[in-house]
Design brief:
This protein has 204 residues and is mainly alpha-helical. Helix content is 75%, strand content 0%.
Length: 204
């Protein structure tokens, strides 16, 4: 995911990863007995439409074509990341009530070991102004996993995972605000569909 974000446009790589993040747990949820209502099925369809539209940055000639080529550089990484996120969501959805938060603690241990293996030769402690964002990222990531686990215990995995997979919408908006990436018409449509999907799930 990080490699894709560094090689391509955030507003494209993140939404691509969202597709796999939704497909895998939805398939697992349906296979394990989830039975969404009709309105919820509609919201899932709308959410997948949003996941499709949000990565569309537009194609053209000259600068537009070059921008599309840059965006495509991280597409493969986005797909792999999406499958990884989807598997993580599906597995978290299988955690029972009596397990508490211990499985999430083990996830963090695995992440730490993975970082240790892949980051050899790199500075371990960030310096200067980079320190605060790094700690903030860790806290937000952990909070997201905890909230996802709590959500799966109160609702269906198929619904929770699809809503969670809409996270690229916020990435697209932040990329536009912070990095000044342009939001295409298709992406605007996708953001609108994402909002609609959330509303439908809430109502349903």
């Amino acid at each position: 995911m990080y490699r894709g974000l560094s090689r391509g446009r955030m507003g494209v790589v993140a939404p691509i990863s969202g597709t796999g993040a939704a497909l895998v747990p939805v398939a697992v949820g349906l296979a394990t007995g989830d039975e969404p209502s009709t309105l919820t099925w509609i919201s899932i369809v709308v959410a997948f439409a949003a996941i499709y539209f949000i990565p569309q940055s537009g194609k053209g000639h000259g600068p537009a074509l070059e921008e599309h080529a840059v965006a495509s550089n991280g597409a493969g990484d986005g797909v792999i990341a999406g499958l990884g996120f989807g598997a993580l969501f599906a597995l978290i959805g299988q955690i029972g009530y009596d397990a508490g938060f211990m499985p999430l603690a083990l996830v963090q241990v695995v992440v730490a070991v993975t970082v240790a293996v892949t980051a050899l030769g790199q500075p371990w402690v960030p310096r200067g102004r980079r320190l605060l964002p790094v700690f903030a990222f860790g806290l937000l990531g952990t909070a997201a996993l905890v909230l996802f686990l709590l959500a799966t215990r109160q609702g269906l995995l198929t619904i929770v995972s699809v809503i969670a997979a809409l996270y690229p919408a916020s990435t697209v908006v932040m990329a536009a605000v912070v990095l000044h990436e342009r939001i295409s018409r298709a992406q605007a449509v996708g953001l609108g569909l994402a909002t609609t999907a959330v509303v439908l799930v809430t109502v349903g």
